[in-house]
Structures are given as C-alpha cells and as structure tokens.
Amino acid sequence: MTAADAAVHAAAVIRLDSVDSTNAEARRHIAGGANAVWVVAGRQTQGRGRRARAWVSEPGNLYTSHAFRPDCPPGRLCEYAFVSALALHDAIGRVCPAAGTHIALKWPNDLIAPEGKLSGILLESESGTAGSPPLLIIGWGVNCRHHPDGGSYPAADLASLGFDVPPERLFEALRDTFLHYDQMLRNHGMAMIRHAWLARARGVGKPVTVRLENQTLEGIFRDLDADGRLILELPDGERMKISTGDIFFPNIAGEENHV
Predict the structure, then answer these.
(1) pLDDT score, position 255
(2) Which tens digits make up the pLDDT trace of 56-108?
(3) Three-state secondary structure call for residue 58
(4) Where are the beta strands (DSSP E) in 91-215?
(5) At the topology level of CATH, where does 207-258 sit?
(6) Do 207-258 and 3-199 fall under one CATH topology?
(7) How high does pLDDT run on average in the chain?
(8) Is the pLDDT of residue 129 over 80?
(9) Which residues pair with 117 in a beta bridge?
(10) Which residues are 105's β-sheet partners?
(11) Which of 58, 89, 208, 219 is the most buried (most CB within 10 A)?
(12) Is 177 within 8 Å of 86 (Cβ atoms)?
C-alpha cells in the first residue's frame, strides 16, 4: 500500500448536523493539517454545484465530501469524475438493490433515473506545494428524500420513486465503494474505470444534444476515449472528442430535458 493509499484508508470522518458547505469544511480540515478527511452533514446552508450553481440542501438527503491528495499528476485528476460516479452508483445499489437497477450514469458523473437527476457531484482541486501532490475535494449531494422543484432541469428523489435509501447507510456504503474504485484507478489506470462506467451509462449509441460554452451540437454518443472524453458522431459522420459540456437526452419526462 502506498502512502497515498494509506492516507485515504485512514481518513477521519467528521459528522455535522449543519454546515455551510461540506467541500468548504473539508478544505478547512486539510488546511488545519489533516492528510485526508470525509465530511458528512445533515444539511448545507451554502451548498453549490458546478459553475457556482446553488445546490438545494434539504435535511434527509446525503451531503458529503472527501478531501485527499491522490498520487497522480494534476492532469489526471479529472479521472476521479468517473470514479466518484461509479462509487455512488454502486453504493446506492448496495443499500437498495432495486434502486440500483433503476438508475444510470450520465456523462461524466451525474446519476439519473428516467424521472430526472438524482445527484450532483462537484470536484475541486488545488495545486500542491513544492514536492506535494495536488489536493482533490469531491462533494456528493444525493436526493434521497427531497428534490428541488421548478428549476431549469427536472430532478427526482429516490424516496418519491419508491426506494428507501437512508443517507447514513448510503454514506457508509459510499466510503467503501469509493475506496474500491480509487484503488482500481491507482492499480490499473483509466481503462478499467472506463469499462465499468460504460456498463452503467445511459445514452451510448443513441442521439444526444451537447451544449458547449459557445455552441450546441447534435449527434450520436458513440463512446468514451481513453481519457474519458465523450466521442460524438455528428450528422456528417465526423467524430468529435468533447472534454466538457452538458448533454441532453430526448424523451426524458416527456420531452428533451437536461437530467
């Protein structure tokens, strides 16, 4: 076991009734000298998603973050987007097997059901000091018992779909499944992670819309490349590799929606 492996296994768990943001709290513990930490809270008062979007944080859902220093180059930290999604998918399936058959992954790390989006995962990183690995913070927000209404994108929660997934049990399962996929990445690289992700993915081989910062593309989601980029086949047959963007599927909740 490497020093990085040992630090992940030995990460302390901080449990709080309420916190501004589990990612922010995890960062504070690292700044205070911790090597790795898990933070889990009953609610967040300043939860956030990608691009600084506010994240509704009602009690009854799971809010947790893991901060650690992966033993990998900064350019490979993005691979943990797939690790974090796989870990959550399998953790839900472990706690409630019936729910596991109802959910899928949407590129790169959203968890979805036909009814809508069930979770958000936010990765934040900081460069390490001279000679030290970079810091990575992964935050999970999972709609166990509540979901936001009236937003731009449809959402759902596991309880409303008939699945009892207690956040406390889900957290314990997530710690275990994350360690499994983290070790898989460390020991075998992205190839096995990519294979496992594709086996749980929605939309491969089907039409999708991809919204980039300055344009919208339509085509067929053909595959992931070795680095996890989405391979989109355009109507003229050209294939593009996409590193970041929002993808949409047709016929979600009756029409094309972001999920």
Answers:
(1) 32
(2) 678 899 999 999 999 888 899 999 999 999 999 999 999 999 999 999 999 99
(3) coil
(4) 104-106, 110-113, 116-117, 119-126, 135-142, 207-211
(5) SH3 type barrels. (2.30.30)
(6) no
(7) 89
(8) no
(9) 112, 155
(10) 111, 201
(11) 89
(12) yes
